[in-house]
C-alpha cells in the first residue's frame, strides 16, 4: 500500500477577490484561490496577514464575493473545475475563536454525465446587484443561480445557441432587466459580439431567442483578434457603465459601452441608445411579420428574403466607438481601479502573458478616447485584484505572486523605456499627454482639431483616424514590489541531489515560464547564520562556555579541548576572541578536558531554633574542570580577570578510606551539573562527587557498574531533568548498552534497554519541555545517545518501572555523533553533529529532527554573550564557528532566475559536479505575430549555479531530453551529457526528425568548453533516456532505441566518441516515459498504456503490455517488478509484473485521483528517515506537479496498511466535506468522461494528508471517538489510538 502526502503545497494562484467578510467592520480581506485551497488574508497597514485557509476537494477555478443584502459585508462562492464542477458557498466566521474559519453554507453540484464540457470559457460572473450568478461549465448551456441574503436561493439551466463561448459580461445595471454580452466563435470560425436578454422571472427562466437590441450583433475583425485561443488567454468583455452624472439632456449619448481586451487592439463599442433600441425592435418586428405572412401564404421567396435580411442585420459591422493598439502579447489578467470620488468605472489595470502591466482609461466623453499607459514589468498574471491606494495584488501561475504599488512617477530603471513597444506603433510621452489635455479644454471645432492633430502626430499617411486612442510611453518603471509570495509552479522537471555527500538532499526544480523562468533549490530544515569565525585551531573535541558567576546569563570565556591539550579564550569587547596565556590561568591546559562547568558554592546554614543545620548553595565564581588525571576547582578573580586555583582537587589515586581499588585508575568520561560531578573511571567504576563547604570534593556515591559484557564506560550524562529526582546515564563499550542509575540510591540501576546497534559515544539527558514538574503537560524528558555509526537513538524517560521507552533512531551519516543542548527561538533543543548536523526538537507530541546545512562538525556548545546572544559555537576542521539557528523545520527555497530562458529539463552529473539544463527561450512578440523560439543546453556550477558553458541549437530545433553518462575509458570512466532534440517543420503535427548528441565537458576554471563530440540522427522526437546494462536507451517517437557509447580515441586530451545502435523496438504510438532496471525497460505510451521490455543481447523482447487507454504522462520504477505513474486525467496508478506458468502479465494494482498534473517522479526521500524498531513507513518516491506541489509517496507495511485503510474509511464517514464530494468519491480515479461506476474508490493508495487530519483532533473529542467506533461493530478500529497517533506522527515527519 502506498501513502500519498504533501511536502510543499500548490503555490500557483488561479483567482483572487477583494471582499468584506465581517459585519459592521471596515476591515477588508483578500481571498486567494489556489489549485485546491482557498486562503483569506486581511488587509493590514503592514501588509497582508493570513487569517485562515480551507482545503477544497476539487480544482478551484474562480472566486466571487456575494453581498449580504445591504449589510456591507460579503459571503464567498467558489467554482471548482471539471471533472466535478460545483459551487461552494462559504461564510467567514470568528465565533470567538483565536483562528477564524470558513464554513460551508451550501454546495451545488454542476456535474452532468452526458454533457460536453465548455471548450473555452469555464467560469462564472455575478451581476452588479449581486443577486444573479451565471456559470458556464458545459457547451450550449448556462447555469443561472438566484441569490438571496448572500447565499443560495434557487437555480435553473438556460440553453444558449452560442456553443463556443469566449467571454461573457453583464451589461445591465439592474437585476430586473438582465442582459449578457456574449463573445463567441460560430461554426464558420468567425468572432461575433452580441447580447441576449435573460429573464429570471418564475415560469420563464430563459434567454431571449433573438439577440438583444442593447448591444446589437457585430462581427469582430479576425486581424484584431487572431486565434487560436487558449483557456488562459481568452478575450475579455468589460462593461463600462454610463457616468453617474448623466442627465436627461445627454442620456441618449451616454449609455455606457463594452470594452474588449485580448486582441491586437482594445476596442470599445457603445451600447445602443433607447431610441436606437426602439428603432431596431421596429425593424425586427417588421421582418418577423413578413416571415409569418410569407409562411402563411406559402411564399417561400418572401420568407427567404426576410431571413436573409435578418442574417445581414446580425452580421452587419458596427462602428467602433474607440480603439487603441495593444502593443504586447496576449492579455492574461485585469482588474478595475476602484475607489475614490472620481471612480467612474473606466480605469483598469491590464497585464499580458510576459508580465507587461499597463493601465487602460476610457474617456466617457463624446470622443471615446482610450488611453493606454505603460507602467512596468511584473510576474505573468493570472489574476489582479485592486486593494487600495494604488496597491494591487497580482496572482501568478508562472512566477511569484506579488503585492504591487503603482507610483505616480518612475521609481526604477529611469533611463530605460517603461516597456518595449514595436517601432511601427505611435506613442506619446506623459508630457505630451498633459499638453494634449490642456489643448482639449478648447471648445467646439478647435477642441476636435487639437485632438486630431495630436493623435495623428508622426503618421505620414495623413489619413484621419477617428476614435483612435493614445499609448503613453515614458522612461522608468512605475511599479514597486511591496511583498513577494513564492511560487515554484509549474514544475516541469526536477532533480534530487546531494552535492556535498552529507546525506542532506535538496531538490532542484525547473519552474516558471514566459519572462520568469527559474531554477529553484528546495530543501527542508533549519537555517544556520554564521556570525563569526576563528581559525587556526585543529583537532577540537570539546567546547565549554564559562560565565564569570554561576547565576550570570552571559558567557565571558570558552574552554576548547583538543586531543592533546586545552585552550582558554576570553571575549573582549563582546565579539573579539583572545587566547589566554596558560601561565595566567589556573585551569588545566596541558591535557584534554573531559567536562567543565560553573557551579555554585556550598555554604553551611546556621540552624534555627528547633531545626537542624544544613547546607545552601550560593552564587559563586567557581568552575569545575575534569581531565583524565583528576577533578580540579578554580575560581575567577574579578579584579585580576584571571582564574586562580581553589582547593587541591580530586585524584582517584589519592582516595583513602572509601572502598578499595582506586590506585591506577584514570578518568575516562565525566559530567557536571550544579550540585554534582559524575566521573567514570576505567574498569567501569562510576563515582558521584559533591563539593563541601570547604571547597573540597567528597565522594557521595560510587559503584562498579561493569559486568562480563560491559567493561568500560564510554560516556556519562547527569543533566538534571526535574526538581525531585536525579538520574545518571552511562553507556558502555563492548556491550553497546546504556544504563540508567539513581545517585540517591547508591547508584542502583533503574533500567537498561536492549543493546544498541553500534558503540555509544555521546549521552545527553534532556528535557524538551519548559516545565520541570513531572506532572505538568509541558515536561518531556528524554535520553539521547549518539552512536559511532552516525545515528542518534532517543528514549522517552517515564517514571516508575517503565524507564526508557519509545526508542527512535535518526541517521546523521556515518561519523560518530555528539550531542549538545541548545536553545533556538526560545525552544529547548539539542544540536547533534556527525557527518551532518541536525536539530532535535519536540513538536506535536513527538520528537522530530530538522537538518542543518553544516558538515563535519566535531563538537558544539551553546553560547550567550553580549554580541552573540543565544548562539552556538561549533568546532570545524580548522577552528571555531559562531552562529545562530533560525526557522526550525521550515521549507527553504532559493531561486536562480533565468528570465526568458525557461528551463525544461535538468540532470545532475555527480562526477563533474555540474548541472545540465535544457532551456527554451520565447521572445515576447505582439499578440498574433509568430513566436521566436530558441533552445539551448547549459551547464551550471553545482553551488553557485553560474553558467560554465552553453550550446545553442539551430533554428526550429528544440532540446527535449537530457541525461548523464559515464562512458568506460581505459581503466576509468569518462563523464558526458546525452542530449536529445527534435526539429519542428511547418505543417508537421509530430516531429519526424531529431538527433542524439553526446557532450564531453572539459572544465577549465570558471568556464567549460561545451561542444558535441558525437551525434546521430533520429526519426522523431526524443522524449526520455534510461540506462540499461551499461548502455543508453532512448525513447524516440513511437520507438525505443538502445545505443552503446564508446570512446574511439584520445587526441590531445579530448577523446573521440561513437554511438553504436544495438537494438530497437517500434511497436508503440508515443513513448514519452522510460525507466529501467537491470535489463528491463518500463515504458509509458502517451496514447496507450504501459509496456515492459527485456533486452536480450541485441534484441528487445516484450515481457508484458497493458492495452487499456491509460494516457500516462510519467513513470518511475517502484520495485524490481512494479512501477508507479501518473496520467493525463490527474490520476496516480501502479502496475506489478506477475508471472505464472501460463503467461506474464501486468496487473494494475493501484489507482488514485490526485487532482493535479504530475510531471515527474524521483526515487528517494526528502529527509533522512528514522530507522525505528517498527519501521512500517518507508519513503520511496517524490513527485512534482504543474501547480508547484511537491509530494512524497510512502510505502506502508501490509499489516499496517489494513489499519490505515480502516482509519481512512471511518474518517471519511465522520469528517464533513467542504463541498458535495465525499472523500471516497473525490479520490476515486477519473477518465476523460468523468468517473467510472467500476471504480468507486481509490485502490492501492491512501491519502496521507487526509489521514494526518486525525492528529488535529483533541484526544478526548467526540470526533475521535466516532472515528474509533465506526458506524458498526465491524468498523470499530482495533489499533489503539496512541499507536495510530504514533504512526501518523512518523508519516508527518517524512515530509
UniProtKB/TrEMBL annotation:
<keyword id="KW-0539">Nucleus</keyword>
<feature type="region of interest" description="Disordered">
    <location>
        <begin position="279"/>
        <end position="307"/>
    </location>
</feature>
<dbReference type="InterPro" id="IPR004871">
    <property type="entry name" value="RSE1/DDB1/CPSF1_C"/>
</dbReference>
<dbReference type="InterPro" id="IPR018846">
    <property type="entry name" value="Beta-prop_RSE1/DDB1/CPSF1_1st"/>
</dbReference>
<dbReference type="GO" id="GO:0003676">
    <property type="term" value="F:nucleic acid binding"/>
</dbReference>
<feature type="domain" description="RSE1/DDB1/CPSF1 first beta-propeller">
    <location>
        <begin position="13"/>
        <end position="410"/>
    </location>
</feature>
<feature type="compositionally biased region" description="Basic residues">
    <location>
        <begin position="1224"/>
        <end position="1233"/>
    </location>
</feature>
<dbReference type="Pfam" id="PF03178">
    <property type="entry name" value="CPSF_A"/>
</dbReference>
<dbReference type="InterPro" id="IPR015943">
    <property type="entry name" value="WD40/YVTN_repeat-like_dom_sf"/>
</dbReference>
<dbReference type="Pfam" id="PF23726">
    <property type="entry name" value="Beta-prop_RSE1_2nd"/>
</dbReference>
<feature type="domain" description="RSE1/DDB1/CPSF1 C-terminal">
    <location>
        <begin position="934"/>
        <end position="1255"/>
    </location>
</feature>
<dbReference type="InterPro" id="IPR058543">
    <property type="entry name" value="Beta-prop_RSE1/DDB1/CPSF1_2nd"/>
</dbReference>
<dbReference type="Pfam" id="PF10433">
    <property type="entry name" value="Beta-prop_RSE1_1st"/>
</dbReference>
<protein>
    <recommendedName>
        <fullName>DNA damage-binding protein 1</fullName>
    </recommendedName>
</protein>
<dbReference type="InterPro" id="IPR050358">
    <property type="entry name" value="RSE1/DDB1/CFT1"/>
</dbReference>
<feature type="compositionally biased region" description="Basic and acidic residues">
    <location>
        <begin position="285"/>
        <end position="307"/>
    </location>
</feature>
<feature type="region of interest" description="Disordered">
    <location>
        <begin position="1220"/>
        <end position="1239"/>
    </location>
</feature>
<dbReference type="GO" id="GO:0005634">
    <property type="term" value="C:nucleus"/>
</dbReference>
<feature type="domain" description="RSE1/DDB1/CPSF1 second beta-propeller">
    <location>
        <begin position="539"/>
        <end position="883"/>
    </location>
</feature>
Amino acid at each position: 500500500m502506498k501513502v500519498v502526502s504533501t511536502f510543499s503545497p500548490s503555490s500557483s494562484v488561479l483567482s483572487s477577490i477583494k471582499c468584506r467578510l465581517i459585519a459592521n467592520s471596515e476591515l477588508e480581506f483578500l481571498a486567494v484561490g489556489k489549485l485546491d485551497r482557498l486562503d483569506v488574508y486581511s488587509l493590514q497597514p503592514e501588509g497582508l496577514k493570513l487569517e485562515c485557509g480551507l482545503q477544497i476537494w476539487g480544482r478551484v477555478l474562480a472566486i466571487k464575493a456575494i453581498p449580504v443584502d445591504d449589510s456591507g459585508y460579503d459571503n464567498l462562492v467558489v467554482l471548482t473545475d471539471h471533472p466535478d464542477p460545483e459551487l461552494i458557498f462559504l461564510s467567514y466566521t470568528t465565533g470567538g475563536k483565536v483562528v477564524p474559519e470558513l464554513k460551508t453554507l451550501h454546495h451545488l453540484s454542476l456535474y452532468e454525465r452526458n454533457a460536453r464540457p465548455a471548450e473555452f470559457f469555464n467560469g462564472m460572473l455575478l451581476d452588479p446587484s449581486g443577486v444573479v450568478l451565471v456559470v458556464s461549465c458545459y457547451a450550449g448551456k448556462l447555469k443561472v443561480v438566484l441569490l438571496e441574503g448572500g447565499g443560495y436561493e434557487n437555480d435553473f439551466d438556460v440553453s444558449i445557441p452560442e456553443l463556443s463561448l469566449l467571454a461573457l459580461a453583464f451589461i445591465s445595471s439592474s437585476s430586473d432587466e438582465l442582459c449578457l454580452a456574449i463573445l463567441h466563435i460560430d461554426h464558420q470560425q468567425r468572432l461575433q459580439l452580441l447580447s441576449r436578454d435573460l429573464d429570471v422571472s418564475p415560469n420563464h427562466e430563459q434567454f431571449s431567442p433573438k439577440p438583444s437590441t442593447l448591444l446589437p450583433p457585430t462581427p469582430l475583425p479576425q486581424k484584431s483578434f487572431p486565434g487560436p485561443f487558449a483557456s488562459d488567454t481568452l478575450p475579455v468583455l468589460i462593461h463600462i457603465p454610463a457616468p453617474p452624472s448623466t442627465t436627461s439632456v445627454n442620456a441618449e449619448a451616454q449609455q455606457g459601452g463594452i470594452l474588449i481586451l485580448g486582441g491586437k487592439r482594445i476596442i470599445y463599442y457603445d451600447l445602443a441608445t433607447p431610441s436606437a433600441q426602439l428603432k431596431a425592435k421596429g425593424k425586427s418586428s417588421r421582418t418577423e411579420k413578413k416571415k409569418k405572412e410569407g409562411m402563411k401564404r406559402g411564399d417561400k421567396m418572401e420568407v427567404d428574403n426576410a431571413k436573409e435580411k435578418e442574417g445581414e442585420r446580425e452580421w452587419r459591422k458596427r462602428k467602433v466607438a474607440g480603439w487603441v493598439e495593444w502593443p504586447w502579447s496576449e492579455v492574461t489578467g485585469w482588474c478595475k481601479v476602484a475607489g475614490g470620488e472620481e471612480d467612474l468605472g473606466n480605469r483598469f489595470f491590464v497585464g499580458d502573458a510576459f508580465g507587461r502591466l499597463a493601465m487602460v482609461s476610457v474617456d466617457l466623453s463624446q470622443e471615446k478616447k482610450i488611453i493606454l499607459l505603460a507602467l512596468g514589468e511584473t510576474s505573468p498574471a493570472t489574476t489582479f485584484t485592486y486593494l487600495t491606494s494604488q496597491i494591487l495584488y497580482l496572482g501568478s501561475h508562472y512566477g511569484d505572486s506579488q503585492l504591487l504599488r503603482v507610483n505616480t512617477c518612475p521609481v526604477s530603471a529611469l533611463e530605460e523605456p517603461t516597456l518595449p513597444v514595436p517601432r511601427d506603433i505611435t506613442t506619446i510621452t506623459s508630457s505630451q499627454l498633459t499638453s494634449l489635455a490642456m489643448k482639449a479644454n478648447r471648445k467646439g471645432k478647435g477642441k476636435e482639431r487639437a485632438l486630431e492633430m495630436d493623435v495623428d502626430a508622426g503618421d505620414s499617411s495623413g489619413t484621419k483616424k477617428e476614435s483612435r486612442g493614445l499609448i503613453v510611453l515614458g522612461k522608468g518603471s512605475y511599479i514597486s514590489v511591496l511583498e513577494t509570495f513564492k511560487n515554484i509552479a509549474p514544475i516541469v522537471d526536477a532533480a534530487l541531489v546531494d552535492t556535498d555527500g552529507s546525506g542532506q538532499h535538496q531538490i532542484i526544480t525547473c519552474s516558471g515560464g514566459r519572462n520568469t523562468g527559474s531554477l529553484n533549490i528546495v530543501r527542508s530544515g533549519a537555517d544556520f547564520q554564521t556570525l563569526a569565525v576563528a581559525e587556526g585551531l585543529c583537532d577540537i573535541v570539546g567546547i565549554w562556555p564559562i560565565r564569570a558567576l554561576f547565576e550570570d546569563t552571559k558567557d565571558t570565556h570558552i574552554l576548547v579541548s583538543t586531543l592533546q591539550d586545552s585552550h582558554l579564550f576570553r571575549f573582549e569587547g563582546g565579539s573579539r576572541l583572545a587566547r589566554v596565556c596558560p601561565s595566567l590561568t589556573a585551569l588545566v591546559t596541558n591535557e584534554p578536558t573531559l567536562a567543565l562547568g560553573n557551579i555554585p558554592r556550598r555554604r553551611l546554614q546556621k540552624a534555627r531554633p528547633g531545626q537542624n543545620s544544613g547546607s545552601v548553595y550560593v552564587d559563586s565564581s567557581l568552575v569545575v574542570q575534569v581531565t583524565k588525571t583528576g577533578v580540579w576547582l578554580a575560581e575567577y578573580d574579578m579584579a585580576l580577570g584571571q582564574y586562580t586555583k581553589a582547593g587541591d582537587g580530586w585524584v582517584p589515586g589519592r582516595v583513602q578510606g572509601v572502598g578499595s581499588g582506586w590506585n591506577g585508575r584514570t578518568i575516562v568520561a565525566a559530567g557536571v551539573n550544579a550540585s554534582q560531578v559524575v566521573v567514570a573511571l576505567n574498569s567501569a567504576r562510576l563515582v558521584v562527587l559533591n563539593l563541601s563547604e570547604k571547597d573540597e570534593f567528597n565522594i557521595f556515591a560510587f559503584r562498579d557498574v561493569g559486568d562480563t559484557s560491559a567493561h568500560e564506560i564510554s560516556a556519562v550524562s547527569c543533566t538534571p531533568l526535574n526538581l525531585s529526582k536525579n538520574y545518571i546515564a552511562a553507556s558502555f563499550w563492548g556491550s553497546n548498552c546504556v544504563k540508567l542509575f539513581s545517585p540517591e540510591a547508591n547508584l542502583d540501576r533503574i533500567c537498561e534497554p536492549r543493546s544498541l546497534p553500534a558503540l555509544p559515544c555521546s549521552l545527553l539527558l534532556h528535557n524538551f519541555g519548559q516545565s520541570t514538574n513531572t506532572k505538568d503537560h509541558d515536561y518531556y524528558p528524554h535520553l539521547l545517545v549518539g552512536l559511532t555509526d552516525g545515528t542518534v537513538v532517543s528514549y522517552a524517560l517515564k517514571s516508575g518501572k517503565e524507564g526508557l521507552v519509545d526508542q527512535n533512531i535518526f541517521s546523521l551519516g556515518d561519523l560518530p555523533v555528539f550531542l549538545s543542548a541548545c536553545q533556538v527561538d526560545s525552544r529547548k533543543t539539542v544540536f547533534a553533529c556527525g557527518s551532518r548536523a541536525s536539530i532535535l526538537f519536540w513538536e506535536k507530541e513527538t520528537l522530530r529532527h530538522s537538518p542543518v546545512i553544516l558538515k563535519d562538525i566535531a563538537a558544539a556548545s551553546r553560547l550567550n554573550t553580549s554580541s552573540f546572544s543565544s548562539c552556538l559555537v561549533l568546532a570545524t576542521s580548522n577552528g571555531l564557528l559562531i552562529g545562530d539557528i533560525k526557522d526550525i523545520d521550515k521549507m527553504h527555497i532559493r531561486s536562480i532566475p533565468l528570465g526568458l530562458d525557461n528551463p525544461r529539463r535538468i540532470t545532475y552529473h555527480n562526477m563533474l559536479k555540474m548541472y545540465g539544463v535544457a532551456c527554451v527561450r520565447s521572445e515576447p512578440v505582439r499578440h498574433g505575430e509568430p513566436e521566436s523560439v530558441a533552445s539551448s543546453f547549459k551547464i551550471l556550477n553545482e553551488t553557485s549555479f553560474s553558467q560554465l558553458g552553453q550550446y545553442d541549437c539551430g533554428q526550429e530545433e528544440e532540446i527535449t531530453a537530457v541525461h548523464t553518462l559515464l562512458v568506460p575509458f581505459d581503466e576509468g570512466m569518462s563523464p558526458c551529457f546525452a542530449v536529445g532534440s527534435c526539429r519542428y517543420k511547418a505543417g508537421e503535427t509530430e516531429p519526424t526528425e531529431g538527433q542524439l548528441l553526446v557532450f564531453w565537458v572539459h572544465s577549465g576554471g570558471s568556464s567549460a568548453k561545451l561542444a558535441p563530440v558525437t551525434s546521430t540522427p533520429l526519426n522523431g522526437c526524443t522524449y526520455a533516456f534510461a540506462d540499461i546494462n551499461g548502455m543508453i536507451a532512448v525513447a524516440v517517437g513511437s520507438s525505443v532505441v538502445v545505443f552503446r557509447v564508446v570512446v574511439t580515441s584520445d587526441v590531445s586530451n579530448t577523446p573521440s566518441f561513437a554511438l553504436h545502435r544495438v537494438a530497437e523496438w517500434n511497436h508503440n504510438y508515443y513513448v514519452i516515459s522510460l525507466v529501467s532496471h537491470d535489463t528491463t525497460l518500463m515504458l509509458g505510451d502517451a496514447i496507450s498504456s504501459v509496456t515492459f521490455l527485456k533486452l536480450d543481447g541485441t534484441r528487445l523482447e516484450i515481457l508484458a503490455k497493458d492495452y487499456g487507454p491509460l494516457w500516462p504522462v510519467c513513470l518511475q520504477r517502484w520495485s524490481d517488478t512494479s512501477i508507479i505513474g501518473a496520467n493525463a486525467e490527474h490520476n496516480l496508478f501502479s502496475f506489478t509484473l506477475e508471472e505464472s506458468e501460463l503467461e506474464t502479465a501486468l496487473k494494475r494494482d493501484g489507482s488514485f485521483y490526485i487532482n493535479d498534473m504530475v510531471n515527474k517522479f524521483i526515487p528517494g526521500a526528502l529527509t533522512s528517515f528514522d530507522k525505528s524498531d517498527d519501521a512500517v513507513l518507508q519513503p520511496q518516491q517524490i513527485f512534482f506537479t504543474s501547480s508547484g506541489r511537491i509530494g512524497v509517496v510512502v510505502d506502508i507495511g501490509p499489516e499496517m496498511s489494513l489499519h490505515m485503510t480502516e482509519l481512512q474509511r471511518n474518517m471519511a464517514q465522520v469528517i464533513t466535506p467542504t463541498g458535495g464530494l465525499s472523500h471516497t468519491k473525490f479520490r476515486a480515479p477519473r477518465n476523460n468522461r468523468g468517473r467510472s461506476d467500476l471504480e468507486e474508490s481509490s485502490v492501492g493508495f491512501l491519502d496521507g494528508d487526509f489521514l494526518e487530519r486525525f492528529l488535529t483532533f483533541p484526544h478526548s473529542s467526540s470526533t475521535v471517538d466516532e472515528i474509533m467506533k465506526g458506524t458498526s461493530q465491524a468498523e470499530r478500529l482495533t489499533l489503539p489510538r496512541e499507536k495510530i497517533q504514533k504512526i501518523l506522527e512518523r508519516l508527518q515527519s517524512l515530509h
